[in-house]
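Form 7-S
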Amino acid sequence: MIGVFWHWLQSRNHLLPLVWICFSVVGFTTFLPYSLIYACVFCALCVFWSYIEFMVQLSFRAPINRKPPLQQDPWILQDVIFRGRMIRVHHVEGAPEQPTLILTHGWTSGASRMVKRAQPFLNKNWTVVMIDLPGHGISESVTKWTAEYATSALIESLRHVSRTSSLFENRPVFYYGHSMGAFIGFRLSERRLELPPTIQFHGWIMESPMTGYSDIFIETCDLLRIPSMFRPIVLRRTISQFNSLNQNKGKFTTLDQTNIPLWGMMKEPILLVQATPDERLGDLHHERLTRVVQEMDPSPHLTVHPMKSLTHSGAAEHHERDGLVNDWVEEMITHSSP
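Output:
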């Protein structure tokens, strides 16, 4: 019973900081008649833990601003209910003999921002499937946002599409992820056994990918100006809340588990299209991908295209990128055909 209550507390915003504030008030009034020093020390400790929990809470914040919903032809819209929340799925069915593309947007973006990336594939009569991740587009938000939860929502959405259509049957499947969408792609590869057997990946396109949370954690701590001495405590509480929010998955114990390859890695060919310089993520993320692939045995085939004309954000339409992606995909299809 205590475990259930603790999980409920960790899955809600503001409750844990509020609990510690309440403890401080109750403790101060309880100890004050006996010792002012004890009362002040107890109150200070409770306020400290309230601060820690509030800082941790900010690490799970969902996007504030949303991109407009995608409501245009020829996209067919479906709503999937996942853990009581609505996830919006969009798809266009192409020719039966053509591949299927799963296209996933990045942080604070939405399916509407991926339409122009999808257009070259639609022009070739591919099937394209996109979703609004939780808290993005028109999909419902969550109390605390994690990439693991978003991956679970994507998996359930793909299951739903597989049950209600033949969009994946007898077709090679490619995944295209931008930034956070790529990070979710790595996790999707790790959890691929949860997908229907009709989804067989032939290749992965990663555009300016996020490849680990450790860098984001440091960036968040810097942004919030959390003192260095407190960061190990914040990290432990962050991992604890992450595990509580994703109870049905394996327990995380270290920050390395949120980086590839422990977070996930694929065995099929990968195309890395990288904004150079990457004004949002810098060099750490794409360099990690290159290093991990080099250390794998056997390693997936990695094709790297740094692009000075490409930016991390605001590149929904980019003809040079689309040409590189098209050439790589055609090469993959040619090599994989009998």
